[in-house]
Amino acid sequence: MAKRHEVNNRLQGETLVRKGLMQKHDHIQPMRLIPDLQVVKIGGHGTIDFGREVVMPLLEEIGEQAKDHKMLVVTGGGVRVRHILDVGIDLGMPTGVLAQLAGKISEQNAEMVSLLLSKWGGTHIDSADILDLPMLLKLGLLPVTHGTPPYGLFEHPPECGLIPPHRTDTGAFLMAEVLGAKSCILVKNVDGLYTENPLVNPDADLIEDITVDELLAMDLEDLVMERKLLYLLKDANSLKELRIVNGHKRGNVEKALRGEKVGTIIRV
């Protein structure tokens, strides 16, 4: 049997999937690149698609808050994502292709939002520029990017159906985690997480505070954010909670940035 060529290191000869090896490094905490960063994700479907009446007051609030808080603004896709997914699924496109198509739309929203925030230093950045954030923030800029994670053709197969499981909520959370951010705030068009879709059932109950395990155990039919996000939160190193707020109500984002009680908190 041929001898493997090795380079001397502490992982020499490892398969990188051995349980004992993973547990050995479990205590090591990764560095937090921007520990005072707050990631604010603006939903396309819940916010941007409503146009000027909703978007302009929200962006003015975010711009003013950028004077006191380090922020990364992340955009969703919205109705156009739903349209392209509908067409793509009907044509039998694979999940990875659907993910690439959806990403192009959330990026369009990021370009528009960055221009609308230019008064406060709004600057559009690509996914590849995320590690430039420390410098951009020191320059007083307000970075804006789209939330579709760059899995593209390598998107994970969904448990059921064809819709990509990792979309813009997930992308915003992953960016917050890799940067070691202070918080991840999902801006929606409802007051938080409900037991049912409140736009369908007005009598649904608002859940103000809940753990990931409790929420998963409830096995709700509908959620205000991507279900995959809950599993990522369980395994996160830096982020131990995420918050959902209503961006149609002025002042909610400010309260969330200040850590005040508003919306829903989902925690580990």
UniProtKB/TrEMBL annotation:
Q: Which UniProt keywords apply?
A: ATP-binding, Kinase, Nucleotide-binding, Pyrimidine biosynthesis, Transferase
> Which E.C. number(s) belong to this protein?
2.7.4.22
Would you name any one GO CC term? cytoplasm
Taxonomically, the superkingdom here is: Bacteria
Q: Which family does it belong to?
A: Belongs to the UMP kinase family.
Matching entries from PANTHER family are given as: URIDYLATE KINASE, URIDYLATE KINASE PUMPKIN, CHLOROPLASTIC
Q: By what name is this protein known?
A: UMP kinase
Q: Give the species.
A: Syntrophotalea carbinolica (strain DSM 2380 / NBRC 103641 / GraBd1) (Pelobacter carbinolicus)
